[in-house]
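Interim report, section 4.2 (structural modelling).
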Amino acid sequence: MHPIIYDVAVSIDGFICGPDGDISRFAQDGAVVEDYSARLQNYATAIMGRATYEFGYRFGMQAGENPYAHMKTIIFSSSLELPDATDVATQKSCDAATIDAIRRRSEGPVYLCGGGIFAGSLLAMGQIDILRLKRAPIILGDGVPLFGDSKTPPELKHTETQGYDDGYLFQEYRVLHA
Amino acid sequence: MHPIIYDVAVSIDGFICGPDGDISRFAQDGAVVEDYSARLQNYATAIMGRATYEFGYRFGMQAGENPYAHMKTIIFSSSLELPDATDVATQKSCDAATIDAIRRRSEGPVYLCGGGIFAGSLLAMGQIDILRLKRAPIILGDGVPLFGDSKTPPELKHTETQGYDDGYLFQEYRVLHA
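Predicted structure of the assembly:
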Protein backbone atom coordinates (compact mmCIF):
# COMPACT_ATOMS: atom_id res chain seq x y z
CA MET A 1 0.00 0.00 0.00
CA HIS A 2 1.61 3.24 -1.10
CA PRO A 3 0.99 6.44 0.87
CA ILE A 4 -1.24 9.25 -0.31
CA ILE A 5 0.61 12.56 -0.15
CA TYR A 6 -1.15 15.92 -0.26
CA ASP A 7 1.55 18.22 -1.67
CA VAL A 8 0.06 21.69 -1.94
CA ALA A 9 0.76 25.40 -1.70
CA VAL A 10 -1.18 27.18 1.03
CA SER A 11 -1.43 30.77 2.26
CA ILE A 12 -0.75 31.60 5.91
CA ASP A 13 -4.52 31.81 6.43
CA GLY A 14 -5.11 28.34 4.99
CA PHE A 15 -6.29 28.86 1.40
CA ILE A 16 -4.93 26.85 -1.55
CA CYS A 17 -6.23 29.39 -4.06
CA GLY A 18 -8.04 32.69 -4.04
CA PRO A 19 -11.53 33.39 -5.40
CA ASP A 20 -12.26 31.83 -8.81
CA GLY A 21 -9.28 29.49 -8.44
CA ASP A 22 -6.79 32.35 -8.61
CA ILE A 23 -3.26 31.05 -7.96
CA SER A 24 -1.44 34.08 -9.34
CA ARG A 25 -0.10 35.14 -5.94
CA PHE A 26 1.69 31.82 -5.37
CA ALA A 27 5.29 31.49 -6.56
CA GLN A 28 5.60 30.29 -10.15
CA ASP A 29 9.34 29.71 -10.00
CA GLY A 30 12.27 29.65 -7.60
CA ALA A 31 13.70 26.99 -5.33
CA VAL A 32 10.38 26.06 -3.70
CA VAL A 33 8.90 25.27 -7.13
CA GLU A 34 12.05 23.42 -8.23
CA ASP A 35 11.94 21.23 -5.11
CA TYR A 36 8.26 20.55 -5.70
CA SER A 37 8.99 19.56 -9.31
CA ALA A 38 11.68 17.20 -8.05
CA ARG A 39 9.23 15.61 -5.61
CA LEU A 40 6.70 15.13 -8.39
CA GLN A 41 9.17 12.82 -10.14
CA ASN A 42 8.84 10.41 -7.21
CA TYR A 43 5.05 10.20 -7.35
CA ALA A 44 3.64 7.41 -9.51
CA THR A 45 -0.09 8.17 -9.48
CA ALA A 46 -1.91 11.51 -9.40
CA ILE A 47 -5.44 11.73 -8.03
CA MET A 48 -7.60 14.84 -8.16
CA GLY A 49 -11.12 16.19 -8.27
CA ARG A 50 -12.80 17.38 -11.42
CA ALA A 51 -12.34 21.12 -10.80
CA THR A 52 -8.61 20.67 -10.30
CA TYR A 53 -8.31 18.76 -13.56
CA GLU A 54 -10.39 21.25 -15.51
CA PHE A 55 -8.35 24.08 -14.02
CA GLY A 56 -5.61 22.94 -16.42
CA TYR A 57 -7.83 23.90 -19.36
CA ARG A 58 -7.14 27.55 -18.51
CA PHE A 59 -3.50 26.93 -19.28
CA GLY A 60 -4.11 25.24 -22.62
CA MET A 61 -4.45 21.61 -21.49
CA GLN A 62 -6.83 19.64 -23.69
CA ALA A 63 -9.63 17.46 -22.31
CA GLY A 64 -8.24 13.95 -21.85
CA GLU A 65 -4.64 15.12 -21.69
CA ASN A 66 -2.48 13.88 -18.81
CA PRO A 67 -1.06 16.84 -16.87
CA TYR A 68 1.67 14.60 -15.38
CA ALA A 69 2.97 12.46 -18.21
CA HIS A 70 5.10 10.22 -15.97
CA MET A 71 2.18 9.43 -13.65
CA LYS A 72 -1.03 7.51 -13.96
CA THR A 73 -3.64 10.22 -13.48
CA ILE A 74 -7.08 9.49 -12.06
CA ILE A 75 -9.83 12.11 -11.91
CA PHE A 76 -12.65 11.58 -9.43
CA SER A 77 -15.87 12.79 -10.96
CA SER A 78 -19.31 11.48 -11.74
CA SER A 79 -19.85 13.96 -14.54
CA LEU A 80 -16.54 14.71 -16.30
CA GLU A 81 -16.79 14.07 -20.03
CA LEU A 82 -13.62 13.21 -21.91
CA PRO A 83 -12.94 12.15 -25.50
CA ASP A 84 -12.74 8.42 -26.20
CA ALA A 85 -8.99 8.62 -26.62
CA THR A 86 -7.72 9.86 -23.31
CA ASP A 87 -4.50 9.61 -21.35
CA VAL A 88 -6.23 9.80 -17.97
CA ALA A 89 -8.62 7.58 -16.06
CA THR A 90 -11.84 8.66 -14.39
CA GLN A 91 -13.34 7.22 -11.28
CA LYS A 92 -16.94 7.81 -10.25
CA SER A 93 -16.92 6.44 -6.71
CA CYS A 94 -14.67 7.61 -3.93
CA ASP A 95 -15.07 4.84 -1.35
CA ALA A 96 -12.34 3.25 0.76
CA ALA A 97 -12.11 0.10 -1.40
CA THR A 98 -11.53 2.20 -4.52
CA ILE A 99 -8.85 4.30 -2.85
CA ASP A 100 -7.17 1.24 -1.34
CA ALA A 101 -7.05 -0.40 -4.78
CA ILE A 102 -5.36 2.70 -6.22
CA ARG A 103 -2.76 2.64 -3.43
CA ARG A 104 -2.07 -1.06 -4.03
CA ARG A 105 -1.77 -0.80 -7.78
CA SER A 106 0.33 2.36 -7.80
CA GLU A 107 4.01 1.88 -8.55
CA GLY A 108 4.98 4.50 -5.98
CA PRO A 109 3.52 7.19 -3.71
CA VAL A 110 0.15 8.63 -4.71
CA TYR A 111 0.08 12.38 -5.29
CA LEU A 112 -3.09 14.05 -4.07
CA CYS A 113 -3.16 17.04 -6.36
CA GLY A 114 -6.33 18.69 -4.98
CA GLY A 115 -8.58 20.39 -4.71
CA GLY A 116 -9.57 21.27 -1.19
CA ILE A 117 -12.97 19.58 -1.19
CA PHE A 118 -11.58 16.32 -2.56
CA ALA A 119 -8.71 16.51 -0.03
CA GLY A 120 -11.23 17.09 2.77
CA SER A 121 -13.17 13.98 1.71
CA LEU A 122 -10.02 11.87 1.73
CA LEU A 123 -8.96 13.32 5.08
CA ALA A 124 -12.34 12.39 6.56
CA MET A 125 -11.87 8.85 5.21
CA GLY A 126 -8.44 8.58 6.87
CA GLN A 127 -6.92 8.34 3.41
CA ILE A 128 -4.24 11.05 3.59
CA ASP A 129 -0.92 9.86 5.02
CA ILE A 130 1.45 12.77 4.50
CA LEU A 131 0.98 16.53 4.16
CA ARG A 132 3.61 18.48 2.28
CA LEU A 133 2.71 22.13 2.55
CA LYS A 134 4.41 24.89 0.65
CA ARG A 135 3.49 27.65 3.09
CA ALA A 136 3.41 30.86 1.09
CA PRO A 137 4.15 34.23 2.73
CA ILE A 138 0.77 35.56 1.59
CA ILE A 139 -2.68 36.19 3.01
CA LEU A 140 -5.49 35.32 0.59
CA GLY A 141 -8.49 36.09 2.80
CA ASP A 142 -10.85 34.08 0.62
CA GLY A 143 -10.91 31.13 -1.78
CA VAL A 144 -10.65 27.36 -1.35
CA PRO A 145 -9.64 26.17 2.16
CA LEU A 146 -6.90 23.54 2.52
CA PHE A 147 -9.46 20.86 3.34
CA GLY A 148 -12.59 22.37 1.78
CA ASP A 149 -15.42 22.22 4.28
CA SER A 150 -14.15 19.10 6.04
CA LYS A 151 -14.30 19.40 9.80
CA THR A 152 -12.17 16.32 10.45
CA PRO A 153 -9.32 17.08 12.87
CA PRO A 154 -6.82 14.18 12.85
CA GLU A 155 -3.63 14.26 14.87
CA LEU A 156 -0.40 15.12 13.03
CA LYS A 157 3.27 14.52 13.59
CA HIS A 158 5.55 17.23 12.21
CA THR A 159 8.43 15.61 10.32
CA GLU A 160 10.23 18.36 8.41
CA THR A 161 10.53 22.08 7.83
CA GLN A 162 12.67 23.85 5.31
CA GLY A 163 12.86 27.58 4.72
CA TYR A 164 13.43 29.36 1.43
CA ASP A 165 14.91 32.77 0.70
CA ASP A 166 11.64 34.05 -0.74
CA GLY A 167 9.79 33.46 2.53
CA TYR A 168 8.26 30.13 1.61
CA LEU A 169 8.36 27.27 4.10
CA PHE A 170 8.16 23.61 3.26
CA GLN A 171 6.32 21.85 6.08
CA GLU A 172 5.86 18.09 6.19
CA TYR A 173 3.50 16.28 8.54
CA ARG A 174 2.50 12.67 8.96
CA VAL A 175 -1.21 12.11 9.58
CA LEU A 176 -1.72 9.79 12.54
CA HIS A 177 -4.57 7.44 11.79
CA ALA A 178 -6.67 6.37 14.76
CA MET B 1 3.96 55.22 16.75
CA HIS B 2 4.47 51.74 18.13
CA PRO B 3 3.73 48.71 15.96
CA ILE B 4 0.68 46.50 16.41
CA ILE B 5 1.74 42.86 16.63
CA TYR B 6 -0.69 39.97 16.18
CA ASP B 7 0.96 37.17 18.17
CA VAL B 8 -1.26 34.13 17.94
CA ALA B 9 -1.37 30.34 17.77
CA VAL B 10 -2.85 28.96 14.56
CA SER B 11 -3.54 25.49 13.19
CA ILE B 12 -2.11 24.42 9.84
CA ASP B 13 -5.56 25.02 8.33
CA GLY B 14 -5.74 28.57 9.66
CA PHE B 15 -7.91 28.44 12.79
CA ILE B 16 -6.98 30.19 16.06
CA CYS B 17 -9.43 28.07 18.05
CA GLY B 18 -11.86 25.25 17.44
CA PRO B 19 -15.65 25.37 17.81
CA ASP B 20 -16.91 27.16 20.95
CA GLY B 21 -13.49 28.79 21.47
CA ASP B 22 -11.82 25.45 22.18
CA ILE B 23 -8.05 25.93 22.55
CA SER B 24 -7.38 22.60 24.27
CA ARG B 25 -5.45 21.18 21.32
CA PHE B 26 -2.89 24.00 21.36
CA ALA B 27 0.25 23.56 23.48
CA GLN B 28 -0.17 24.77 27.05
CA ASP B 29 3.53 24.50 27.92
CA GLY B 30 6.93 23.84 26.41
CA ALA B 31 9.46 26.06 24.67
CA VAL B 32 6.98 27.65 22.25
CA VAL B 33 4.85 28.83 25.19
CA GLU B 34 7.91 29.99 27.14
CA ASP B 35 9.12 32.05 24.18
CA TYR B 36 5.66 33.54 23.78
CA SER B 37 5.61 34.44 27.49
CA ALA B 38 9.00 36.12 27.06
CA ARG B 39 7.69 38.15 24.09
CA LEU B 40 4.68 39.25 26.13
CA GLN B 41 7.04 41.01 28.54
CA ASN B 42 8.04 43.35 25.72
CA TYR B 43 4.50 44.38 24.83
CA ALA B 44 3.21 47.48 26.62
CA THR B 45 -0.44 47.55 25.57
CA ALA B 46 -2.86 44.71 24.91
CA ILE B 47 -5.87 45.23 22.63
CA MET B 48 -8.60 42.68 22.09
CA GLY B 49 -12.24 42.14 21.21
CA ARG B 50 -14.92 41.44 23.77
CA ALA B 51 -15.14 37.67 23.17
CA THR B 52 -11.41 37.28 23.69
CA TYR B 53 -11.58 39.18 26.99
CA GLU B 54 -14.60 37.27 28.22
CA PHE B 55 -12.91 34.00 27.25
CA GLY B 56 -10.73 34.59 30.32
CA TYR B 57 -13.83 34.22 32.54
CA ARG B 58 -13.74 30.49 31.78
CA PHE B 59 -10.40 30.31 33.53
CA GLY B 60 -11.49 32.20 36.63
CA MET B 61 -10.71 35.76 35.56
CA GLN B 62 -13.09 38.30 37.12
CA ALA B 63 -14.87 41.00 35.11
CA GLY B 64 -12.67 44.09 35.16
CA GLU B 65 -9.50 42.15 35.90
CA ASN B 66 -6.44 42.81 33.74
CA PRO B 67 -5.23 39.55 32.17
CA TYR B 68 -1.79 41.09 31.52
CA ALA B 69 -0.82 42.95 34.68
CA HIS B 70 2.25 44.60 33.15
CA MET B 71 0.30 45.96 30.17
CA LYS B 72 -2.37 48.54 29.67
CA THR B 73 -5.30 46.46 28.42
CA ILE B 74 -7.98 47.90 26.16
CA ILE B 75 -11.10 45.95 25.19
CA PHE B 76 -12.96 47.01 22.06
CA SER B 77 -16.66 46.59 22.67
CA SER B 78 -19.82 48.64 22.51
CA SER B 79 -21.62 46.42 25.00
CA LEU B 80 -19.14 45.00 27.55
CA GLU B 81 -20.23 45.80 31.11
CA LEU B 82 -17.56 45.99 33.79
CA PRO B 83 -17.65 46.98 37.46
CA ASP B 84 -16.82 50.62 38.31
CA ALA B 85 -13.46 49.58 39.74
CA THR B 86 -11.65 48.00 36.83
CA ASP B 87 -8.06 47.49 35.80
CA VAL B 88 -8.83 47.59 32.08
CA ALA B 89 -10.06 50.22 29.65
CA THR B 90 -12.88 49.83 27.15
CA GLN B 91 -13.13 51.47 23.79
CA LYS B 92 -16.37 51.65 21.84
CA SER B 93 -15.11 52.87 18.47
CA CYS B 94 -12.49 51.16 16.36
CA ASP B 95 -11.57 53.87 13.86
CA ALA B 96 -8.11 54.76 12.61
CA ALA B 97 -7.77 57.84 14.84
CA THR B 98 -8.52 55.75 17.94
CA ILE B 99 -6.01 53.06 16.98
CA ASP B 100 -3.37 55.64 16.08
CA ALA B 101 -3.83 57.30 19.46
CA ILE B 102 -3.31 53.95 21.20
CA ARG B 103 -0.11 53.38 19.22
CA ARG B 104 1.18 56.84 20.09
CA ARG B 105 0.41 56.64 23.80
CA SER B 106 1.69 53.09 24.26
CA GLU B 107 5.03 52.75 25.99
CA GLY B 108 6.06 49.91 23.69
CA PRO B 109 4.70 47.54 21.02
CA VAL B 110 0.95 46.93 21.04
CA TYR B 111 -0.09 43.29 21.46
CA LEU B 112 -3.11 42.33 19.39
CA CYS B 113 -4.45 39.49 21.47
CA GLY B 114 -7.39 38.55 19.25
CA GLY B 115 -9.80 37.38 18.32
CA GLY B 116 -10.00 36.63 14.63
CA ILE B 117 -12.82 39.03 13.79
CA PHE B 118 -11.15 41.94 15.59
CA ALA B 119 -7.84 41.06 13.90
CA GLY B 120 -9.58 40.97 10.52
CA SER B 121 -11.00 44.45 11.12
CA LEU B 122 -7.58 45.82 12.01
CA LEU B 123 -6.01 44.07 9.01
CA ALA B 124 -8.58 45.68 6.71
CA MET B 125 -7.71 49.07 8.25
CA GLY B 126 -4.00 48.52 7.59
CA GLN B 127 -3.44 48.52 11.35
CA ILE B 128 -1.48 45.28 11.79
CA ASP B 129 2.28 45.66 11.34
CA ILE B 130 3.71 42.32 12.38
CA LEU B 131 2.36 38.78 12.46
CA ARG B 132 3.90 36.35 14.92
CA LEU B 133 2.33 32.98 14.29
CA LYS B 134 2.81 29.96 16.49
CA ARG B 135 1.98 27.41 13.81
CA ALA B 136 0.67 24.35 15.61
CA PRO B 137 1.05 20.85 14.13
CA ILE B 138 -2.70 20.35 14.28
CA ILE B 139 -5.71 20.46 11.98
CA LEU B 140 -8.81 21.98 13.58
CA GLY B 141 -11.19 21.83 10.62
CA ASP B 142 -13.56 24.38 12.17
CA GLY B 143 -13.60 27.34 14.54
CA VAL B 144 -12.41 30.95 14.30
CA PRO B 145 -10.25 31.78 11.24
CA LEU B 146 -7.02 33.72 11.71
CA PHE B 147 -8.60 36.90 10.33
CA GLY B 148 -12.29 36.16 10.93
CA ASP B 149 -14.25 36.85 7.78
CA SER B 150 -11.90 39.56 6.52
CA LYS B 151 -11.08 39.18 2.85
CA THR B 152 -8.24 41.70 2.90
CA PRO B 153 -5.08 40.25 1.29
CA PRO B 154 -2.12 42.53 2.08
CA GLU B 155 1.40 41.70 1.00
CA LEU B 156 3.76 40.20 3.59
CA LYS B 157 7.47 39.96 4.07
CA HIS B 158 8.66 36.86 5.90
CA THR B 159 11.20 37.84 8.55
CA GLU B 160 11.78 34.82 10.78
CA THR B 161 11.07 31.14 11.30
CA GLN B 162 12.03 29.03 14.27
CA GLY B 163 11.23 25.37 14.76
CA TYR B 164 10.49 23.60 18.03
CA ASP B 165 10.93 19.98 19.02
CA ASP B 166 7.18 19.49 19.48
CA GLY B 167 6.48 20.38 15.86
CA TYR B 168 5.52 24.00 16.44
CA LEU B 169 6.91 26.66 14.15
CA PHE B 170 7.31 30.31 15.02
CA GLN B 171 6.71 32.35 11.87
CA GLU B 172 7.15 36.11 11.77
CA TYR B 173 5.96 38.33 8.92
CA ARG B 174 5.92 42.06 8.38
CA VAL B 175 2.73 43.42 6.81
CA LEU B 176 3.57 45.70 3.88
CA HIS B 177 1.20 48.65 3.92
CA ALA B 178 0.28 50.07 0.54
